[in-house]
TrEMBL record:
Keyword tRNA processing: no
Positions annotated to bind substrate: 76-79, 98
Protein name as it appears in the record: 4-hydroxy-4-methyl-2-oxoglutarate aldolase
EC class: lyase
CDD domains: RraA_family (cd16841)
Molecular function as annotated in GO: 4-hydroxy-4-methyl-2-oxoglutarate aldolase activity; metal ion binding; oxaloacetate decarboxylase activity; ribonuclease inhibitor activity
Cofactor(s) required for function per UniProt: a divalent metal cation; Mg(2+)
Family membership noted in the UniProt record: Belongs to the class II aldolase/RraA-like family.
SUPFAM superfamilies: RraA-like
Catalytic activity: 4-hydroxy-4-methyl-2-oxoglutarate = 2 pyruvate; oxaloacetate + H(+) = pyruvate + CO2
EC number of the protein: 4.1.1.112, 4.1.3.17
Organism annotation: Bacterioplanes sanyensis
Oligomer and partners: Homotrimer.
Length: 163
């Protein structure tokens, strides 16, 4: 796990980074995280999120386009713990999470719009590793995302913290 400081990365790589519009809150046990983008596009159905947390996430960040829905939580404590145990660096959710008190203690970066105690239906719907767009940025699978309390940035290539 590396510590990333998004203002420093923006200063070091101004031509590479795109800044996501401010909208996310930091809920995870890791204050900063980054890695290769793996996307999920789903709406009020976290079936694909559940499938992905069961895979090896070493060096990866799951970016979930939940359509900005605030009506259901796309991540809860059990999925967050599974993601952490499978090496995921973090999860960014354009939507809601729940079980925030447990997630704050989990070794996983988690950013989301808000919290909602209501779980989703599991209908098996959603797409994995497709381009998703929100916050003025397109998230491309295989590119890189970095997040901390300052915000979320995207880069076409891996970035390293300046010395």
């Amino acid at each position: 796990m590396s510590d990333y400081v998004t203002p420093d990365l923006c200063d070091e790589y101004p031509q590479l980074v795109q800044v996501v519009e401010p909208m996310f809150n930091n809920y995870g046990g890791r204050e900063s995280f980054g890695g290769e983008i793996v996307t999920v596009k789903c709406f009020e159905d976290n079936s694909k999120v559940k499938e992905l947390v069961d895979t090896d996430g070493t060096g990866k960040v799951m970016v979930v386009d939940g359509g900005g829905s605030l009506r259901h939580a796309l991540l809860g404590d059990m999925l967050a713990e599974k993601a952490a145990s499978n090496g995921w660096e973090g999860i960014i959710i354009y939507g809601c999470i729940r079980d925030v008190d447990v997630i704050m203690e989990t070794d996983l970066g988690v950013q989301a719009l808000a919290t909602n105690p209501l779980k989703t239906d599991k209908r098996g719907l959603g797409d994995v590793n497709v381009e998703v767009k929100f916050g003025g940025v397109t998230f491309v699978p295989g590119q890189f995302v970095y997040a901390d309390n300052n915000g979320v940035i995207v880069s076409p290539e891996a970035l390293s913290m300046p010395a």
